Structure formats: C-alpha cells, structure tokens
TrEMBL record:
Name of the molecule in the record: DUF2853 family protein
Matching Gene3D superfamilies: Jann4075-like
Source species of the chain: Stagnihabitans tardus
Pfam families listed in its UniProt record: DUF2853 (PF11015)
Length: 109
C-alpha cells in the first residue's frame, strides 16, 4: 500500500471514528514521521500493550510533554473504533492536542 493510500485510510478514521476534520498537509507530515512502521501490519496498529513504547516514541519526536499519559489515554478513548487503532491517527490526535503542528507541516519556500 502506498503512502497516499495510508493517508486516505487515516483521514477516514479521523473523520468517522474521531469526529475530526483532518488537515491533510499535517496528516501527511505525521505519516511521514511515523516512518516504516505504518507499512508493517504488526506495527501499523496499536494495542494497549503497545502504548508504553508509543509513549517513548511520542516524547522522542515531540519533546517533553505535560501530562502525556493522560493525553494518550484521552486520545485512545477519542479514537473509538471496533477495528484497529492506527499509530498515525493517535499520533495526529496528540500532535493536535499538544499544539505541535508546526513540527510536521511542510516548510514554506
């Protein structure tokens, strides 16, 4: 599956499962930051057991964050879906929550 296909899937999940209207430029930046993990079915989606490793990755990419555990739990609950919870979708929700959008938007010029 190509990156554009992943972005379309994640945008649909953000709209349908989270009630959000995703910024596609920001989502593209977030998906790019997730790297090759989104292309492996074993790492594309997260389970509750994956959250400690996800937390470390989030802090590595965003820097120190206040109340990070509570924010991750809130994002997990916001992402209400019977299917898989995708890493990039949770990451997008948390980038928005912490106001770190500038880190993932395309640079002008």
């Amino acid at each position: 599956m190509r990156q554009e296909d992943h972005i379309a899937r994640y945008a649909a999940d953000l709209a349908q499962a989270c009630g959000m209207h995703p910024d596609l430029d920001l989502l593209h930046g977030v998906v790019t930051a997730c790297g090759p993990l989104i292309y492996d079915p074993a790492t594309e989606a997260l389970t509750p057991q994956d959250l400690p490793a996800f937390r470390k990755s989030l802090i590595r990419k965003l820097g120190p964050l206040p109340a990070v555990d509570e924010a991750i739990q809130a994002a997990w609950e916001t992402y209400e879906t019977p299917g898989p919870r995708y890493r990039a979708v949770l990451f997008y929700i948390l980038v928005q929550h912490f106001g770190k959008q500038a880190l993932f938007r395309p640079k002008a010029g």
